[in-house]
């Protein structure tokens, strides 16, 4: 029997990722078998029917851990008492839409949601932003929640991390369970840097295994010309092949992110985008992806990793893009 109760708020709950998330959360995969959940589904008016339909199906699933489901288009009531906020609903880039328009449209979503979190969320609230541009949307929400510690606002790069594991597993013919310490640095965008310099497979350095398999030069080329772009552009590949953006894998990564945050990482480190504390020269406060561990319910950036010139250049390029996005939203007055 559950011995605690948590309120989980999902924005964009009537959308694709929302639908892939809800049933896994209600079954206990987000917070474990000892925590009953109260779900709050936030949608815009046009999305309410879809969210209401999902709520009917949740009822029909008779999940023992599911205590209640509320559907609303009011951010204040959706985030009232929230322990976990999954910020999925966002404004995707449409045809002919300029980057500035995209950031402004998302500002209009994430600024009021940040304010609602500030006003009513539980003291221990944990937020993960999935809706793109995820890192910058997290900064906007955080800027409007001055009473919530900024480290509670994170953005999803676990999908990129998992994609990197999938690619390595295939290349090395090694189960994912044998892989450790892959890192995603920077933005959840094509500039991200998937880094395997410290990764191991079955305890052996991945780079060494690739060199044995391919030879030193070909291994370097594979990492630079195949692995990195494949992971960084996987979102676009999925859109091209599936005809719409990733859904189940994005929901799965969101569950992984929150579940590790709450329960701790046990298989080496993972990756998450969080406000920088200045580590690795990333400007303080910028929401950037790092290699992280979760200890005692808090993300900690893995310290002391050596970065070669190639890594430094790639991280700097992605951080430069994040700084540009931050300046653009600052100019729009979205950072408070
Ligand atoms: N970070 C990642 O790894 C990652 C991966 C995949 C997709 N995404 C992003 O996730 C987002 C959602 O994807 P999807 O496939 O579920 O899209 P979707 O269009 O199916 O669903 C989005 C839902 O959000 C709702 N919504 C819009 N504005 C809202 C608001 N202000 N409040 C509440 N709900 C609102 C819409 O009505 C819609 O139902 C997109 O921005 C997508 O680019 C991120
Ligand atoms: O929705 C997108 O643009 C792609 C998404 O962020 C992904 O990584 O799959």
Automatic annotation (TrEMBL):
Domain (Lactate/malate dehydrogenase C-terminal): give its ranges: 157-328
For biological process, the GO terms are: malate metabolic process; tricarboxylic acid cycle
Q: Which residues form the Lactate/malate dehydrogenase N-terminal domain?
A: 8-146
Q: Which residues form a coiled coil?
A: none
From the UniProt record, list the reaction(s) this protein catalyses. (S)-malate + NAD(+) = oxaloacetate + NADH + H(+)
Which top EC class is given?
Answer: oxidoreductase
Tell me the GO molecular function terms: L-malate dehydrogenase (NAD+) activity
In terms of PANTHER family, this protein maps to: MALATE DEHYDROGENASE (PTHR23382)
The protein's job, in short, is: Catalyzes the reversible oxidation of malate to oxaloacetate.
UniProt-recorded name of the protein: Malate dehydrogenase
Q: Mind giving the lineage of the organism this protein is from?
A: Bacteria, Bacillati, Actinomycetota, Actinomycetes, Micrococcales
Q: Name the gene that codes for it.
A: mdh
């Amino acid at each position: 029997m559950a011995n605690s109760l948590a309120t989980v708020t999902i924005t964009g709950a009537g959308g694709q990722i929302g639908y892939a998330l809800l049933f896994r959360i209600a079954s206990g995969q987000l917070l474990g078998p000892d925590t009953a959940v109260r779900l709050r589904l936030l949608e815009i008016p046009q999305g309410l029917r879809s969210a209401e339909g999902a709520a009917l199906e949740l009822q029909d699933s008779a999940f023992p851990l599911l205590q209640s489901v509320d559907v609303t288009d009011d951010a204040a009531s959706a985030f009232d008492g929230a322990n976990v906020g999954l910020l999925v609903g966002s404004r995707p880039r449409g045809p002919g839409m300029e980057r500035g328009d995209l950031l402004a449209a998302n500002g209009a979503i994430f600024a009021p949601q940040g304010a609602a979190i500030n006003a009513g969320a539980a003291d221990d609230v944990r937020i993960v932003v999935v809706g793109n541009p995820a890192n910058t949307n997290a900064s906007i929400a955080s800027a409007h929640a001055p009473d919530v510690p900024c480290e509670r606002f994170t953005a999803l790069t676990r999908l990129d991390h998992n994609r990197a594991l999938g690619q390595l597993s295939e290349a090395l013919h090694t189960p994912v369970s044998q892989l450790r310490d892959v890192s995603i640095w920077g933005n959840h965008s094509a500039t991200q840097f998937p880094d395997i310099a410290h990764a191991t497979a079955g305890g052996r350095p991945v780079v060494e295994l690739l060199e044995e398999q391919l030879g030193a030069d070909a291994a370097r080329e594979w990492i630079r010309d195949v692995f990195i772009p494949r992971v960084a552009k996987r979102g676009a590949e999925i859109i091209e092949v599936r005809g719409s953006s990733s859904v189940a894998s994005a929901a799965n990564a969101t569950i992984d992110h929150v579940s590790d945050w709450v329960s701790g990482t046990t298989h080496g480190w993972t990756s998450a985008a969080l406000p920088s504390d200045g580590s690795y020269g990333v400007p303080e406060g910028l929401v950037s992806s790092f290699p992280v561990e979760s200890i005692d319910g808090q993300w900690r950036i893995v310290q002391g990793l050596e970065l070669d010139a190639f890594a430094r250049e790639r991280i700097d390029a992605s951080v430069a893009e994040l700084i540009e996005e931050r300046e653009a939203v600052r100019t729009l007055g979205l950072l408070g």
